[in-house]
Amino acid sequence: MLGLVLLLLASPSAGRAAPAAPRLEDVSAAIPDAVIDLRYTTARNVTGHALYPPGARCLLQPAVAARLARAADRLRVRGFRLRLYDCYRPLSVQRLLFARESRPGFVADPSRGGSHHNKAAAVDVGLVDLAGADVALPTDFDEFTARARASAVQGVAPEARAHREALREAMMAAGFVASRSEWWHFSAPEARGSRLLDVPVDP
After folding, report:
1. Which residues does residue 177 pair with via DSSP β-bridges, in sequence order?
2. H helices within the chain, ranges in order?
3. Contact between residue 188 and residue 176 where contact means Cβ atoms under 8 Å apart
């Protein structure tokens, strides 16, 4: 038994501290003109309740924030600015969200790998014009209807489809992968190999 204890103490992993949480970047620094509209700080989301504390920040992995900044650059040339509905989402919030809205294809099950949001590698985004005014979009954020699908035509005005496609093109050019079921949701390749996080979104 003593030999086993000594062997464990001598093991390289013995006494090793848990890896520190990765550094996350505040997107407002990377994209100063982005409209921060984090819906989970309000009741304007599918749950009807605030899930984030006041002062929550839009946080992403630095490489993902850099991708988003490139997308913002492309959109700015076309007369748009980004509106950010959600960025990094703590795993504990994912559990609350899934408990209130568990329709397949919309909210990821936290017990089955969670969401790329929980890895700070996904964003929910919309558009405004250069003055910050709303532009036509297919639906509001978290409106889980057929019109929210990325390819929806029926019930979606041509102007809204054009804005949706402009957003999609800019995001995909920056390396994001578009969701089929939510026109506003995009994942970054940095999600691959990243771990689920549950660190605060407030300062």
Report:
1. 187
2. 2-10, 27-30, 62-77, 91-100, 158-173
3. yes
Computed on alpha carbons and rounded to an integer, the radius of gyration of the chain in Å comes to 19
Tokens of 29: 């620094």
Cβ-proximal residues to 4 (8 Å cutoff; 6+ apart), any chain = none
Low-confidence ranges of the chain (pLDDT < 50): 1-19
Within 10 angstroms of residue 100's Cβ, the number of other Cβ atoms is: 13
Nearest to 123 by CA among 199, 202, 176: 176
- Whole-model pTM above 0.90? no
31 within 8 A of 73, measured Cβ to Cβ:
no
Strands 80-86 and 35-36: parallel
Query: Which tens digit of pLDDT belongs to each residue from 61-80?
Result: 999 999 999 999 999 999 99
CATH 3.30.1380.10 given to domain 22-191? yes
Instruction: Tell me the helix, strand and coil percentages in the chain, rounded to 5.
Output: 35, 15, 50
Q: Given this model, what pLDDT does residue 111 score?
A: 86
Number of other CB atoms surrounding residue 88 within 10 Å: 26
Residues 6 or more apart whose Cβ sits within 8 Å of residue 175? 67, 188, 189
Domains of the chain: which residue ranges? 22-191
| pLDDT (0 to 100) of residue 20 | 55
Give the pair of three-digit tokens for residue 63.
């490489």
Residues annotated as part of the active site: 182
